[in-house]
Amino acid sequence: MANTKSAKKATRKIAHRTAVNKARRTRMRSSLRVVEDAISTGDKAAAQAALVAAEPALMRAARNGIVHKKTASRKVSRLTHRIAKLG
């Protein structure tokens, strides 16, 4: 258990940061789930619209350090290819 004033403050900051990051990660995953659902139903227009909404959420997560920049780009790329294959 933290017993110095600075260690107690650090613990509080970590708890707050964790909550913020968890919310951001959830928002990112939810937007990806919408795209995945649209792809699974085979609706190309809905999938494209969902991807347009999800891409900024993914890049925002990358900018905030939730996921790596290349991970976000890879996810967008793979989703784009899957949507293109729907035809």
Which secondary structure elements does this structure contain, and how are they paired or packed?
Blueprint: H1 5-41, H2 44-63, H3 69-84
Helix pairs in contact: 1-2, 2-3
Report on the structure:
The chain is an all-alpha fold and 87 residues long. The protein has a single domain, classed as Ribosomal protein S20 (Methane Monooxygenase Hydroxylase, Chain G, domain 1, Up-down Bundle), CATH 1.20.58.110. Helix content is 84%, strand content 0%. The longest helix is centred in the first third of the chain and has 37 residues, at 5-41.
Question: Could you name the key traits of this structure?
Answer:
84% helix, elongated, 87 residues, Methane Monooxygenase Hydroxylase, Chain G, domain 1, mainly alpha
